[in-house]
Amino acid sequence: MFTMTADQAAEVPSDAGQSPVQLLEQRVGAGWKTLAQARRLALETRTKLADALAGISSSDLSIVAFGSLARDEFTPGSDVDWTLLIDGIADAHHFDLTQEIRGVVAALGMKQPGREGQFGAMTFSHELVHLIGGQDDTNSNTTRRILLLLESVALGQGAAHERVITGTLSRYLLEERTFARGSKPINVPRFLLNDFARYWRTMAVDFAYKSRTRHGKGSALRNLKLRMSRKLIFVSGLLSCFSCQLGMARVGGHAGCPGREEECVICLRAFMGRKPLDIFAQTALYLAEKNPAKAAQIFAFAEKAVTAYDKFLAILADTHKRERLDNLAQADIDSDPLFVEARAISHEFRDGIDGFFFDGDADLAKLTRHYGVF
Where would a tag sit more exposed on the chain, N or C end, judged by fewer CB atoms within 10 A? Predict the structure, then answer.
């Protein structure tokens, strides 16, 4: 395992500056107001939490946020999903720290993590880094690992957070020797991609399980999140895995070049350090510049997807609509006007994503057919 230097870590995108989503918004002449509001609220909330929790994190401990708060999609009524990530010696005092964090979140009037139990407690780095696959890699462990890679952000000191991410990526990339050594003509990290795909399918299966065990309670809102935010996570994972072959690596050329094993991890970490929607927007901007003849089509699909996502967040930002969807009885879902409207928005998002992957850039379409389907 290795860690980034200070200079390398500094190249991972931060909250400062103009995001790829904002650049795409300007390029296509859109007005994604809800996304902008959600981004501001997420930054304000993370800053408030980091200030209130100062002194808890250390070189071995990071307080890590997930979910809409980490993705810059925070709206009124959103949960604050967090974990105390421990990358050091186990200490009985760590449990007390989780209670302290829970108390701070409550004192600030913010919603605690959901009842699934994935967040709001301790997470140990050993399980994330070493238990990839096999019978000991539980759904909970897989969820924490994939979300750590695709949508997490440290609140306060982030040394442990950064070490665990680079250590986890090292497992995926350096153990797939054909990728790390660049010994194949197409460089896609299949070990990592397959775990992203496994997580996406697990979420779909778990949706059916939760609907049954909870007698349909909350099914409408979970259904929409599966169609939108959960799908977006998978989209960002696929694009991250394709970024090397498409030439979007931070270091020039394709990742997987001979003699660049550790640099592969640094390149991919830098790309995945963006928010999921920013990864999608950054890819759209890059592919359009690379392929001017298809730029209009690429931008059209991207605009359709992101506009639908903005509409989706607008529904979540309306506390009355959010509560209505959360409490909607399963028997009433298909006939409820609000759910019908939201489902139509999810179809717009789906169509934009499908077109973007299959009908825009030819290289992306080829990678999607070869690695995203079979």
Answer: C
